[in-house]
TrEMBL record:
GO molecular function, one term: sulfotransferase activity
InterPro entries found in the cross-reference section: P-loop_NTPase, Sulfotransferase_dom
Name of this protein: Sulfotransferase domain-containing protein
Organism for this UniProt entry: Elysia crispata (lettuce slug)
Domain of life: Eukaryota
Length: 386
């Protein structure tokens, strides 16, 4: 099925008739018509949320053909680079772990993650979207494996004024992993939230309250290596690095797609909201001069810190310390469901470690992928070798 970014919505009620080509049906709640010229992400911060089920067979489609959904007629345009939402291959040829695969659902035109929480994924995303935000909230956003744990601990120390580690892992305030979002209302301000979700699925109150956002960016080859090792914990032995590199660029086997889809939607959000407070931090810059970046971060969140304190935070949040502390901290039930054994969050934390994993042939193939993405626009240009 193709869902175009400039799809025209008509406010109609009718009995769903599946498209004979796409085998899909659609239900839209809290309907609001939008002009075709409205930018995609700006429009997604309206009061609308959309759920689309990608049908997997003609038989399944026929089973819902006579249901009255009070749906919304959607016209589709020819295939575009960002509109295609392919269903994962049922045979999963590259052996990606099941939890990473797209669910076949869309929420606000973005693929739905199989959140390991008590609610079904769409219900949980709806609650996230409607989550009340505070003026002094801070939220970390990033593609997975780009340093969110690291900067979360730095922010904890800056806001607490002490170089003491949080007793809980960041997943307690990670929106897609928070089993009961009402827990967040019990936290004292400023709340430190984090998420890997696309902007269209984050709380709409982020825009209304102009919530400060810290966006982490990392070299794509290092990100790929770190992602592979992270996913390997929940995958079969057939999930090799070579298989990962074959499936990752197409974006079909990871619900978040690949890193550049994420970066482009962040760039589009910033373009649509030029006055929104966002600090972009490159993982490589934080590694090279942590105290300087921590100083800038303290000023961004309006909690100025002395040079000496920033140096102490940088030392406390060194990789070996973070790895040691993380192994002893309390983790939420949702994270325990994600993997039978404790996930290894801190593996190496080395800039340029991709050179120890990619073969020459793999690097050249990945470079072709990078060249294609550069033509489309990176969104944000990563540091390091590309």
């Amino acid at each position: 099925m193709i869902v175009s970014s400039n799809t025209e919505h008509l406010d109609l009620q009718f009995k769903t008739r599946p498209d004979k080509h796409s085998y899909s049906t659609k239900t839209t709640l809290n309907l609001r018509a939008r002009p075709r010229s409205t930018s995609r992400l700006y429009a997604l911060y309206s009061a609308e949320f959309t759920v689309v089920r990608i049908m997997t067979s003609v038989k399944e489609t026929n089973g819902v053909a006579n249901q009255d959904t009070n749906g919304l007629l959607e016209k589709t345009n020819p295939k575009s680079d960002t509109a295609e939402l392919p269903a994962p291959d049922p045979n999963n040829p590259f052996s990606f772990p099941a939890l990473t695969l797209p669910s076949g659902l869309l929420f606000n035109r973005v693929r739905v993650m199989k959140c390991p929480v008590k609610d079904d994924p769409v219900t949980h995303l709806k609650k996230i979207y409607d989550l009340p935000m505070r003026d002094d909230d801070i939220i970390i956003t990033a593609y997975p494996k780009c340093g969110t744990h690291w900067v979360a601990e730095i922010l904890h120390m800056l806001t607490s004024g002490a170089t003491e580690f949080s007793g809980r892992t960041k997943e307690y305030t990670m929106l897609e992993f928070c089993n009961d979002l009402r827990f967040l209302a019990t936290l004292t301000s400023p709340r430190l939230l984090n998420s890997h979700l696309y902007m269209a699925q984050l709380p709409r109150g982020i825009v209304d309250k102009k919530v400060k956002m810290v966006h982490m960016i990392r070299n794509p080859k290092d990100t790929a290596v770190s992602m592979y090792h992270h996913l390997k914990h929940t995958a079969s032995e057939q999930f090799t690095f070579d298989n990962f590199l074959k499936g990752y660029p197409c974006g079909d086997y990871i619900v978040f797609s690949h890193q550049f889809d994420y970066l482009r939607q962040m760039a589009e959000f910033e373009k649509s909201h030029p006055d929104h407070p966002i600090m972009h931090i490159h993982y490589e810059d934080l590694k090279q001069d942590p105290a300087a970046i921590i100083k800038e971060l303290s000023q961004f969140i309006e909690t100025p810190a002395s040079d000496d304190f920033c140096q102490r935070v940088a030392a406390a949040c060194g990789f070996s310390n973070m790895r040691k502390v993380d192994s002893t901290r309390e983790i939420p039930e949702s994270l325990r469901k994600f993997s039978k054994k404790r996930l290894e969050i801190y593996r190496k934390g080395v800039v340029g470690d991709w050179k120890n994993h990619f073969t020459v042939a793999q690097s050249e193939a990945f470079d072709e992928f990078l060249a294609e993405q550069k033509q489309k626009g990176f969104g944000f240009t990563p540091r390091g070798e590309l």
